[in-house]
Amino acid sequence: MSIDQAIYDLATKVRELKPIIETEEATKTAFIIPFISTVLGYDVTDPREVIPEYTADVGTKKGEKVDFAIKSGDDFRFLIECKKIGEPLNLNHASQLVRYFNLTDTEFAILTNGEVFQFYAQLDAANRMDQRPFMTLDLSSVDARLFPHLEMCTKSRFDSETIAANAEELKYVSELRKNIASELKEPSSDFVKLLAAKVTSRRMIAANMELFTRLTATAASQYLRDEANRRLRSAQDLEEPETPAAPAAAQVSESSEPDTPGGGVVTTDEERQAHDIIRAICCSEVPATDITMRDAKSYCAILFQDNNRKPIARLLFDRKVPRIITFDADKNETQHDLEAIEDIYKYADALRERVRSLAG
Predict the structure, then answer these.
(1) Nearest alpha carbon to residue 16 among 88, 115, 87, 113
(2) Going from the N-terminus, what domains does the chain have, and what CATH number goes with each?
């Protein structure tokens, strides 16, 4: 089973069973053990791989346990601390996990309540568990952009150096997004001063700070509203003329290339999300870095190894009904209308088959 399907299946299970789960042990059985097994790919029945209730004697602390230790030979891959579903996740309530992480050669840890999975590393200081997670998987609102990164954490594709390299970027992007959101919602004095200095020479005395704090909040609100309206117009009003669906046997020219990038080409968040989804689908067959995107005016191309002679899919999103074009091994194309970006998962088999043919 692909990692994306495993995650969506587990998310469905969480929604169905969450109301009747009342204990931490039930949370482990219903959600966390299946996560270790079906998502990460470890054999939960093999104590050489997955050790429940791992005793963590640290200094004068004897008999403390972490809920699960995942190992490969003598090497730790993850320590996992579990809470009952619905409980907030806080490292202050997982002190044994932090202590044991800091005194072993463990590089990664997971704190979870069965619905939210927080992944931790040691990016800020060697042999010291970070205070903030580098990745958070929330099964109540799955972010498909995480799938390639989760794939790297699985048993078959585990590479600590690659995970750590990606973890740093994930962590800082996540923290920057939170700070940007906070500044747009409630601008700080530093943010107000930074923007005010670009539009006025006034000294930021108390009265001016009050004025520009209000103006900055108004400008941020208007920007977010205008951006939302722009995307809505792009989806509903800027429909391209309908093109007849290509017959199933239509051949794609060997020299077929997307329009030359540039000249007003704007890569949208929806196209980036679609690229992430296709990478998540295909990284079970080839490295995620082989799934590249090249945008152009008429369509956005998803290519194998950035080779325009090896198209995996084409995205036609600047129309009322978004569409994806998939290819078979003989480069015959099929067009599919999408009600939502996540509908791309319906064509996962075709995408994987295409990638296999290109990689072979």
Answers:
(1) 115
(2) 3-174 (3.90.1570.30), 214-360 (no CATH)
